[in-house]
Amino acid sequence: DQPAPAYKRVLLKISGEALMGDQGFGLHPPTVERIAREVKSVQELGVEICMVIGGGNIFRGLSGSAQGMERTTADYMGMLATVMNALAMQSALEGLGVYTRVISAIRMDEVCEPYIRRRAVRHLEKKRVCIFAAGTGNPYFTTDTAATLRANEMACEAIFKGTKVDGVYDKDPVKFPDAVRYDTVTYDDCLAKHLKVMDASAIALARDNNLPIIVFSLDEPGGFRGILAGEGTYTRVHG
Length: 239
Ligand code: UDP
Hints:
Elements: E1 9-14, H1 29-43, E2 48-53, H2 61-66, H3 71-95, E3 100-104, E4 113-114, H4 117-125, E5 129-133, H5 143-153, E6 158-163, E7 168-169, E8 181-182, E9 184-186, H6 187-192, H7 200-208, E10 213-217, H8 223-228, E11 235-238
Parallel strand pairs: 1-2, 1-6, 2-5, 3-4, 3-5, 6-10, 9-11
Antiparallel strand pairs: 7-8, 10-11
The structure holds uridine-5'-diphosphate.
């Protein structure tokens, strides 16, 4: 007998870079499939899953505008990049037999569904994985903020932020071997100490709605499922 998962509905946020494997750019299908398997294993626990995937493996608004492009145009390109990642993840999940919907903040009805909140909730109730694409639909935001927004709208109990390391550290654990991982940390400490969790507007939005952020390693096989089953190491960001 499995213990009941600690959460009934969660949102998994991953960066676009999580999908590029060891390449410097774009999509690495075996990596996409590996993450899809992690998602499937959590879905099998009966957890309802939302996903938000960044676009940084394809395009980032800030780098576009640094090259002279208008910021808003560059941001729209970044949002379109997230749609490509969402479609790749949908394809991988469907290959594993997981029903999935891509739901875009910018209408593109031939490609995916538009965002209609009640419809998305219904998909979740039917155990379909909902991948929210195109960020918030607005320039000057990030997919971290989009993740927090959608997690609130979908009444998720937590955001799971999958990263390369198993939590939030006081300094970069890749550069400093003496870095210390926090078991828990407050939103305010994240903001005051500039800890690398999510950008400030996303953390503030989570704080204002008391939405916990679980930072964990996506590189750890079975890690996502383990946390939902009450195991593993991670950092819980809370009020
Ligand atoms: N973006 C945006 N509005 C949003 C979400 C994203 O304009 O609500 C754009 C922005 O240009 C950003 C890009 O999409 O640089 C890719 O998203 P993000 O940088 O969050 O991706 P990640 O770093 O998670 O891969």
